[in-house]
Amino acid sequence: MSPWAFMRVNYLPMTLGVVFSLGLVTCFVVAVLRGDVSPYMPFISETGGKYPEAGIFSIFLYLSSILGLSTMFTRFLIVDELNRGIDRTIDILNRSSVVIGFIALMGMVVVAAYPMTSVPTAHGIGANVLFLGGVIYAALQTWLSYKMTPYYNGTKICHIRLAITILTATALIVMSVMMPIAMKFWSTSKHDHWTGGKLPGEEGFDLMVVSSVAEWTMAIMFLTYYFTFIREFQKVCLHLRVQMLVQHFDEEPHDVNVAVATERTPIVM
């Protein structure tokens, strides 16, 4: 019964970064070349607001959500193995953060499923859950990192994660404040194109650009935060073990409580 071994799982956050970045760049280039958006800092969702780029946008977001959840769960397992229930606060932060992270990524799935031009309400709810949940996840993980000092990690990585969290939260606040104001100005006059095609000189253009820059900054900061796990993941090996309870699938297992060997299990029975 040899387990599947996954050596150095640092490829998880690295792959997430590649997939997510490739998706954003691809959608932006396609949307601009097709004339669906202007090149003046469109919102991320606007680059995937119309087809065919909307399909590309959804595919990359789905893949990113899977990779993101895998990274979060791997981080959870690592901390759980290190702590082993010794510090209750670490356990609480570890479990809370993975739950919040899962909820945030479900927001990403909603964003992928409902482009902003099809069901804007659902898209907006998903985006809010994603952004707010992502910031809370980063904050909890930063707090967790400080709690793990000095026994499991140093203070340098804690300070780095704190700086990223502050920048991400600041970007979220800027976007949350500026976007409604920008949309209010935009709606004061008639346009022959949607917000994705905004041009300099139009009402609310400057505020939209500020909001968009904040959103792109937030996305980059999220990826950067994931990248802080790479060094830790390089020092971890995950095992996937299958324990068969029967030899034939028409049989019923005699004992569902499979004994697991521990350090106290006698070598000779």
Describe the 3D structure.
With 269 residues, the protein is mainly α. The protein has helices at residues 11-34, 44-47, 53-83, 88-113, 120-147, 155-186, 205-227, 230-233, and strands at 4-7, 237-240. The protein is built from eight helices and two strands; from the N terminus they run E-H-H-H-H-H-H-H-H-E. It has one domain (4-241). A two-stranded antiparallel sheet has the order 1-2.
Provide the fold topology.
Elements: E1 4-7, H1 11-34, H2 44-47, H3 53-83, H4 88-113, H5 120-147, H6 155-186, H7 205-227, H8 230-233, E2 237-240
Antiparallel strand pairs: 1-2
Task: Give a concise summary.
By secondary structure, the protein is mainly alpha-helical. It is 64% helix and 3% strand.
* C-alpha geometry: globular
Q: How is the main sheet built?
A: 2 strands, antiparallel
Discrete helix count: 8
The proportion of strand residues reads under 5%
Percent range of helical residues:
55-70%
> In whole angstroms, how far apart are the ends?
20 Å
What's the count of strands? 2
Biggest sheet strand line-up: 1-2
Name the helix and strand elements from N-terminus to C-terminus, one letter apiece.
EHHHHHHHHE
Class by alpha and beta content: mainly alpha
The domain tally reads: 1
